[in-house]
Amino acid sequence: MEASAGIRARPGAWAGLEKPRGGGAYSARVPAVRLTAEKLPPRLALGTDPRRSADPVLRAAKLKASCCKKPAGTEKVHYSADEALILQQKAQDVLPYLDGRCVYLVGMMGSGKTTVGKILAEVLGYSFFDSDKLVEKAVGISSVAEIFQLHSEAFFRDNESEVLRDLSSMHRLVVATGGGAVIRPINWSYMKKGLTVWLDVPLDALARRIAAVGTASRPLLHQESGDPYAKAYAKLTSLFEQRMDSYANADARVSLEHIALKQGHNDVTILTPSTIAIEALLKMESFLTEKAMVRN
Ligand SMILES: Nc1ncnc2c1ncn2[C@@H]1O[C@H](COP(=O)(O)OP(=O)(O)OP(=O)(O)O)[C@@H](O)[C@H]1O
Ligand SMILES: O=C(O)C1=C[C@@H](O)[C@@H](O)[C@H](O)C1
């Protein structure tokens, strides 16, 4: 099964990247997802609402609608010219080894799975999916926070596993998984069909990012009162202690602390999403080439 990205290379440009007139940063449209009926995984279209149709054509239309709510081109990711070239080069290096397998980004809430995942999808010519969004679509409830509230965390986790199972039968996808997807071993059996990449971000930086946007959309962190940074930091610390061994199952680890150290400083807050995406491609390449060497 396969989904194709909505971006096509133009002469003189490489897939998805556009140089603005008059210079400045490169930008890339976030790819749209195009799926055909025969490429459709069952659960993703078979929600508790009319999307549970048995008709494959109808299901395809439903999934397409769920993945393409934002028209292509409405979100822009900005790169410098240097970053654009490196991203292009690294993506070309990785693609033959990846051989169409999906990339699953794992990591704590707010670690940048969505932001970095969209860049990776763009440069690899893959389609991007956010598993939280797919659970919302499958259940027919518009936010994860509401799913937790109206049902339960266990209900959300069951649906998350079903979404990951269905995605695992597809190819050429970058998937931003939910922060807690790593806790269920069954999810690893799905994700290990592709390549798993852990975005490892210091908890202090995570708590700052999350406090900046508020905790309302993140039910496991939400508190009605108190300092949002302090509360988020405390909760993230306890979640991370429970989960760090699970995150470490990933094939590749992208540590923001290591990137900062390589750059000769220790400020992870100045690392841009594209810098992190480049490191992700480098780590993916080392893992895949080592694996290929062992096989030969
Ligand atoms: N490198 C970065 N530097 C600064 N802020 C960032 C960076 N990457 C992502 N962010 C910001 O952090 C927040 C969380 O990012 P994002 O949604 O990509 O994370 P996520 O891992 O998908 O989160 P969740 O699992 O909770 O959905 C967003 O507000 C995003 O703009
Ligand atoms: O870390 C977690 O357990 C979660 C992360 C989010 O992506 C959502 O999947 C949900 O809020 C749970």
Automatic annotation (TrEMBL):
Gene Ontology terms describing biological process: amino acid biosynthetic process; aromatic amino acid family biosynthetic process; chorismate biosynthetic process; shikimate metabolic process
Gene Ontology molecular-function annotations: ATP binding; metal ion binding; shikimate kinase activity
Signal peptide coordinates: none
Cofactor(s) the protein needs: Mg(2+)
PROSITE patterns attached to this UniProt entry: SHIKIMATE_KINASE
Involved pathway(s): Metabolic intermediate biosynthesis; chorismate biosynthesis; chorismate from D-erythrose 4-phosphate and phosphoenolpyruvate: step 5/7
Record localization: Plastid, Chloroplast
GO cellular component: chloroplast; cytosol
Reaction catalyzed: shikimate + ATP = 3-phosphoshikimate + ADP + H(+)
Major subcellular site: plastid
Stored Gene3D superfamilies: P-loop containing nucleotide triphosphate hydrolases
EC number in record: 2.7.1.71
InterPro entries: P-loop_NTPase, Shikimate/glucono_kinase, Shikimate_kinase/TSH1, Shikimate_kinase_CS
Top-rank EC class of the record's enzyme: transferase
Keywords associated with the record: Amino-acid biosynthesis, Aromatic amino acid biosynthesis, ATP-binding, Chloroplast, Kinase, Magnesium, Metal-binding, Nucleotide-binding, Plastid, Transferase, Transit peptide
Function recorded in the entry: Catalyzes the specific phosphorylation of the 3-hydroxyl group of shikimic acid using ATP as a cosubstrate.
PANTHER family: SHIKIMATE KINASE, SHIKIMATE KINASE 3, CHLOROPLASTIC
Family: Belongs to the shikimate kinase family.
Name of the protein described by the UniProt record: shikimate kinase
